[in-house]
Design goal:
The chain has 11 helices and 14 strands. The chain has 335 residues and is α/β, with parallel strands linked by helices. The strands form 3 sheets. An 8-stranded parallel beta sheet has the order 13-12-11-10-9-8-7-14. A 4-stranded antiparallel beta sheet has the order 2-3-1-4, covered by helices on one side. Helix 6 links the parallel strand 10 and strand 11 (205-208). The structure holds phosphoenolpyruvate (PEP) and manganese (II) ion.
């Protein structure tokens, strides 16, 4: 529920409404606006009776929000959220952010050479997995802390923040020692306990869409993080499962403008996992930028044919340079 105050309401009247909402056992989030203040009611499971609230001095009207998410919605925060990572800004009105690097960190050589090349080509953030959620237990599972150390060192050497996946609560402290952005992977999008924990941490989160998640489920997952106190969330479309098998997943491009209608959070696209095919990465990354994504995440490897994970969809160095040339062209066109 959203309680909209009258234009001329006083801060005393706002405080009174907040007190009453809290007495009812809910959280009250004061949302200042250019013209009037609104108060978001969070924590109610069901419809909240509004008769008593409507009678309070200074209250204009009440909007009942029945969606499974509130804090992530534009109803609660009409202004766009810009997530800052050091000096970098991700969100509406900022140049699209490019996150690039190997699927998995495999060796110092591999991650340092990739970091250098992607940085030189214009990427802003270095990606690389150290804890890998692989479909089979016999597949490479990642280098763990050794991988985190290499990733962080390669990031520092090239002046790039790093993003890496955390798969469970028990890994959080360790991953936080090295990561500038915590990635929640598609398979963990509905690991609600993990979402609640990253919500308590002051670190940006890259939340990937679950492969079978609807847009409402995706936003409800982000809501878990915001409710717990962390609003530095970047959403990522990485393709969904459909009947089509020619691509690894189906890249749902409409989700970009649609999420921008529904939510104030930034959204980026990951054409590597969305297509599973390196030749499709450049056109689909470009498409993402054209429909308004706030950034792109792509997998890059010095020798994709030898990669320990996701080589088929990884760009080699010349491929990444070409991608950056094309993206730069389209980013300039949009300005
Ligand atoms: C990844 O980024 O390497 C990854 C495993 O992504 P997703 O969770 O989208 O499959
Ligand atoms: Mn991967």
């Amino acid at each position: 529920m959203l309680i909209v105050m009258q234009k001329q309401s006083s801060s005393k009247e706002v405080d009174q409404v907040v007190g009453i909402v809290e007495n009812l056992g809910f959280q009250a989030k004061v949302i200042p606006g250019a013209e009037r203040v609104a108060i978001g009611v969070v924590g109610n499971q069901d419809y909240v009776e509004d008769a008593a609230i409507l009678r309070l001095p200074g209250v204009s009207h009440v909007i009942h929000v029945t969606k499974p998410y509130k804090l992530v919605s534009r109803d609660f925060s009409p202004e766009n959220t810009v997530v800052t990572i050091g000096e970098l800004k991700v969100g509406e009105g900022c140049p699209p952010v490019i996150m690039a690097g190997p699927c998995s960190v495999e060796s110092e050589e591999q991650v340092f050479s990739t970091a250098e090349v992607v940085k030189k080509a214009g990427a802003h953030i270095l990606r690389g997995g150290a804890f890998k959620p692989r479909t089979g237990p016999h597949n490479f599972q990642g280098l763990g802390e050794e991988g985190l150390k290499m990733l962080s060192a390669a990031g520092k050497a090239n002046n790039m923040p790093v993003v890496t996946e955390v798969m469970r609560i028990g890994q959080l402290d360790l991953v936080c020692k090295y990561a500038d952005i915590l990635q929640i992977g598609a398979r963990n999008m509905q690991n609600f306990d993990l979402l609640k924990e990253v919500g308590k941490i002051d670190r940006p989160v890259l939340l990937k869409r679950g492969m079978c998640a609807t847009i409402d489920e995706f936003l409800a997952a982000a809501e878990y993080i915001l409710v717990a106190g962390n609003s530095r969330v970047i959403l990522c479309e990485r393709g969904i499962r459909t009947f089509e098998t020619a691509t690894r997943n189906t890249m749902d491009l409409a989700v970009v403008p649609l999420i921008k209608e529904k939510s104030h959070l930034p959204i980026i696209v990951d054409p590597s996992h969305a297509t599973g095919k390196s030749s499709l990465v450049m056109p689909m990354a470009t498409a993402g930028i054209v429909v308004g994504a706030h950034g792109v995440m792509v997998e890059v490897h010095p020798q994709p044919e030898c990669a320990l994970s996701d080589g088929i969809q990884s760009l080699d160095f010349p491929g990444f340079n070409q991608l950056m040339e094309q993206l730069t062209y389209y980013i300039q066109l949009k300005r």
